[in-house]
Hints:
The chain is α/β, with parallel strands linked by helices. The chain has two domains: 3-159, 3-Layer(aba) Sandwich (Rossmann fold); 166-284, N-(1-d-carboxylethyl)-l-norvaline Dehydrogenase, domain 2, CATH 1.10.1040.10. It contains 13 helices and nine strands. A six-stranded parallel sheet has the order 3-2-1-4-5-6, sandwiched between helices. β2, α2 and β3 form a beta-alpha-beta unit. α4 (68-78) packs parallel to α5, α8 (163-191) crosses α11 and α9 runs antiparallel to α10.
Amino acid sequence: MKIGFIGLGIMGESMCANIVKKHNDTVYCSDMVKEKVDELVKLGAVAAADNVDLAEKADVIISMVPKSEHSRSVYTQILPKLGKGKICIDMSTIDPSVSVEIAKMVKETGAQFADAPVVKSKPAAIAGKLGIYVGCDEELYDTVRPILAYMGENIIRMGENGTGITMKILHNALVGQIQNGVNEVSNLAAVCGIDIQTFATAISYGGGQNFYLDSKKDVIEKNDFTTAFSIENMYKDVNICKKLAEEKGLPMPGEMNVVRVYDKAMEAGYAKEDFSATIKVVRAEKV
């Protein structure tokens, strides 16, 4: 079974590298940046001329691109090469309604489609320990799960097409609210003379312990916001959640505050920094 991987960004390059290392057949790759492709070729991947060439040669086509418009563009490009026997897996974080639209478009050719976005960041992508939420029928899930297992260790089928990406948006919405709580309360702790490391240790003794604080306390202490997952990517995700809530007629005041913080982070020029840099927005705010 030949696999093709489209999109070798921060996450995609490591995800594809794990497939190359673990899969026992050809792995094709494609990206707009030639240097990214060259790095994967060094690991054993085969460079495709473009996305269309990749879709023609691969049995399973995996995409990991930044936004809804990019996913739609990829699948529109490769549509003539799809048909019975082809499997498409979009691992991008995009608008659920667009994902469902792409699924319908792909399945009309006779090909199969799964949305399978990932959670956790770059270190987990490198280690092949991502969490993966899958939206597809049960039979296809049984087929694609071993492939997804090259990249992740916690894999769950959420339901039919669209449910995987919906769960990813819900996950990131909750992370944003936890992050905002950590930012605000740890900032108050600092003003009260409690440093972030002592704060994190004390929090771990009670019900407030959370993965975000545990994993970002060193980053916050050092003010080293080297990007593992960018402000601009999380900004996209929280705004997808805002749109989803509006479509469902559901008020989410906590999430709207997260959106406000990310709006300010983007305005402040933090877009390319790690999403933990939102603490700089909270620190700068005055009563």
